[in-house]
Amino acid sequence: MDHSLTASQLHALEKTERIASAFSLLGASFIILTFVLSSDFRKPVNRLIFYASWGNLFANAATLISQSGVKAGRESALCQFQAFIIQMFFIADALWNLAMAINVYLNVFKKYNAQQLKALEWRYHLLCYGTPFIIALVFCFVETQGRGKMYGPAQLWCWISSDWAFMRIALFYAPAWYDPF
């Protein structure tokens, strides 16, 4: 059974993706500006949302590229860049959600105060941006004769290519589904 999309379907998805990405960019930008311009919003949970919003900004810029990376070709700098950004910042987004959940848990059940929570933020940065950066960077250099580069076309954008689909499960979907709580 052929599961490929028609040119018309791809065009409709690309248009929808770009519109949704543009709205997401506006939303993340609004969060960042609100945080920067108003001291009333600089509370522990809002700081984590602020940090996560930077990742959302980059992720949505990558999805705004949409099919342009795929059309440029697997070997193109645009495709490789888009794949790196998507791999890094989609995971970072999920990890920032985990960090926010940890903060809520620590505040509600362990009675952490604002200073104790703030002291954890450097660890959150390492976890949420450092870990995905290392994974995404390593993927830039993974290539085999049989499968080619790990990053390449993945239907709507460049990401982990279809030839490496098992890696999507192992290093993207499985960690997102894992719930340590």
- Percent in helix: over 70%
Beta-strand content bin: 5-15%
Mean pLDDT: 92
Radius of gyration: 18 Å
Could you state the order of secondary-structure elements as H and E? Answer: HHHHHHEEEEH
Instruction: Let me know the number of strands.
Output: 4
Quick one: overall form?
Answer: globular
Q: Compute the number of helices.
A: 7
* Helix/strand/pairing category: mainly alpha
Q: Widest sheet: strand order?
A: 1-2
Q: Runs with pLDDT <50, length 5+?
A: none
Distance between the terminal alpha carbons, to the nearest Å?
A: 39 Å
Largest sheet: 2 strands, antiparallel
Q: What this model shows, in words?
A:
There is one protein chain. The chain is mainly alpha-helical and 181 residues long. The protein has a two-stranded antiparallel sheet. Strands 3-4 form a two-stranded antiparallel sheet. It has 7 helices and 4 strands, in the order ααααααββββα. The longest helix is centred in the middle third of the chain and has 33 residues. Helix content is 72%, strand content 6%.
Please specify the SSE layout and strand pairing.
Layout lengths: L6 H31 L6 H22 L1 H6 L4 H33 L4 H6 L1 H20 L2 E2 L3 E2 L1 E3 L4 E3 L4 H13 L4
Antiparallel strand pairs: 1-2, 3-4
Helix pairs in contact: 1-2, 2-4, 4-6
Keywords:
mainly alpha; two-stranded antiparallel ribbon; globular; 7 helices; two-stranded antiparallel sheet; 181 residues
Please summarize what this structure is:
With 181 residues, the chain is mostly helical.
